[in-house]
Every structure is written in structure tokens, then in C-alpha cells.
Amino acid sequence: MNFIYNGPDQGPLFVFAHGAGAPANASFMETIATGLALRGIRVARFNFAYMQQRVDTGTRRPPARADKLVVEFVDLIAELNQPMVIGGKSMGGRIASLFASESTNDKVKGVVCLGFPFHPLGKPETLRTAHFPFIKQEVLIIQGERDKLGSREEVQSYGLPKELQWLWLEDGDHDLKPRVKSGFTHPAHLQKALDRMALFIIGALDKNSGDKQL
């Protein structure tokens, strides 16, 4: 696996997966990775195989099935082989959470999801929530209040596990971006998200890992 690293070599590790339509070096991914690096987190980004093929050939390809992407996660976590928190943007966060719900790998200490796709666009009845009760690690979900793939109003009706941790960003969309008229700004929302992520990642690794690499 070809990883893009940001942050200190010995920092707490966050493995960061991209969304369905944009690669590991997309602007949102870059902003989050560099922001975490400034907060002392070591970030490892990567492209799933379908996305790497798109990058290499310029030919757009749809994402592979979720079960195949989970297998890719299994392989990359085995390659890194150290305590870590995993997560991602949209689809990447979903795949990380699916991995956590199915795996007994003790290297993974927590999961962070940015803009979780609770349902496909325009299909609010098709929920992607059944696996959440099976996740043993701590989970942080950072979500825009008006995300079209899972708004605050929608999510509050799902009956999700009470153990999930949340950061709701006011008037944020799927990219956590608020409208100008809201009085909030995208950069401020991203900084708020980064502060919460850094605390969560450091806390999850410090609390759960016997390896005091932090």
C-alpha cells in the first residue's frame, strides 16, 4: 500500500480513508491531514484500489463493493501493525466502521467518521446503521446538521447506540460546510472538527493501548 504521511514519525497514528468520489489527496483530505499533523497526529492516507486505478488511468470507476473495501482495510492495517485509530470521509468512514464491527484486530483503538453516509442520496429508507451495535471501539461521528446523507433530525430517529460520540456542526452539509447566511464558516467548522478529532485520537490510544508510544 502506498501511504501519504503527515505529522510526526512517532505521533499517535490515524489511518484516514477517502470518500467515494475523491482520492486521498483531495482538498478536504489534505486539510484534515495537515490540520491533524499540526496537532501532533501522524496521519496515513491511501487510495482504495478502484480509486488508485482511476488516478493512474484517468478513467472513472465506481467504488468496489463494501465487503471488498473492508478486505483492503484488513490488509493495510496488517501492514501498519501498530496501535491506531481508523476512519474516513463519508464512504471511507463507513468502511472503517464496518471493519471495526467485523474485526477482532486489537490494533484498532477507535473510529472517526466525517460525514457518515447513513443512507444513499435520496433514499432515506435504506439505512446503513445495522453494524453500529457490533463496534467495540469508541466511535466519534462528526456530522453536518443538514447533511443530505443523514441530517441531525434524521439521525436522532435511528435509535443508534448511546455510546457513540458526536460533534454536530451547525448548518453543515456533507462536507461540513455551512451556508453563508448561517453566520458560521467552513474553516471554523473544520478547525472545530480537527480539535475534537485530535483529542479523541490521542485519548483512544492513550486509554486503550499498552504501548505508550504517545
Describe the structure.
The protein has helices at residues 27-38, 49-57, 66-80, 91-102, 152-155, 186-208, and strands spanning 4-6, 13-17, 42-46, 84-89, 108-114, 138-144, 165-169. It is an alpha/beta fold and 214 residues long. The protein has one domain (4-208): Alpha/Beta hydrolase fold, catalytic domain (Rossmann fold, 3-Layer(aba) Sandwich). Strands 1-3-2-4-5-6-7 form a 7-stranded mixed beta sheet. The longest helix has 23 residues, at 186-208.
SSE topology:
Blueprint: E1 4-6, E2 13-17, H1 27-38, E3 42-46, H2 49-57, H3 66-80, E4 84-89, H4 91-102, E5 108-114, E6 138-144, H5 152-155, E7 165-169, H6 186-208
Parallel strand pairs: 2-3, 2-4, 4-5, 5-6, 6-7
Antiparallel strand pairs: 1-3
Helix pairs in contact: 1-6, 3-4
Short description:
With 214 residues, the chain is an alpha/beta fold. The protein contains six helices and seven strands. It has helices at 27-38, 49-57, 66-80, 91-102, 152-155, 186-208, and strands at 4-6, 13-17, 42-46, 84-89, 108-114, 138-144, 165-169.
Which geometry do the CA atoms define?
A: globular
Give the proportion of residues in helices: 25-40%
Side by side, the strands of the main sheet go 1-3-2-4-5-6-7
CATH superfamily: Alpha/Beta hydrolase fold, catalytic domain
Beta percentage is 15-25%
Tally of DSSP β-strands = 7
On the 0 to 100 scale, the average pLDDT is 94
CATH class: Alpha Beta
Total of domains: 1
The third-level CATH topology is Rossmann fold
The termini sit apart by 24 Å
Output the radius of gyration.
16 Å
Q: Please count the helical segments.
A: 6
- CATH architectural arrangement: 3-Layer(aba) Sandwich
